[in-house]
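FAQ: What does the model actually see?

It sees only this:
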Amino acid sequence: MALLVAGLVIFLGLHLLPLLAPGLRASAAARLGEGPWKGAFALLSLVGFALLVVGYGEARQGAVTLLYAPPVWTRHLAYLLTLVAFILLLAPYTGRNHFRARFGHPMVLGAKSWALAHLLANGFLHDLLLFGGFLAWGVLSFILLRRRDRALGRAPVTPNWGSTLVTILAGGVAWFAFAKWLHPMWIGVAIFPG
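And it is asked to produce this:
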């Protein structure tokens, strides 16, 4: 469990730091140079991510602590929430869609939706640490990002329906592929029977 916690602290902490201390990023980039700063940030992020993946895998295989037994219907709600998550996670990359226009930071909302889905459908301590950590990060990040946007007077995005439709279709296809093949392969949990 220690690796999971260390990975969460490193990965989520790094991604919160620029929002909590915006001057720190600028001063570090000025001191190190933009390229080396981005490289160090990426490397530390990968280390944190690797630790949380390995730590979560070890926690699932070790002595597990059940905190609550989710009812079966929460799995079905989790399917819907993860579909929404995939759509929102792709929204920053598919043009001027309605999700970007409305939310400003749809990827953070996608991470929150993914985390909430998994919290509803899983009741072990390691699940609470991983998905609860990402949900807390997402809530705080979204608040800070929206506050920053208002302070900077960011102009709203003018959406179009073509980009929105592409976002929904791409998110749906990615969700299906992940749920059908990658989730069972990587996580060891089949989403669709058979």
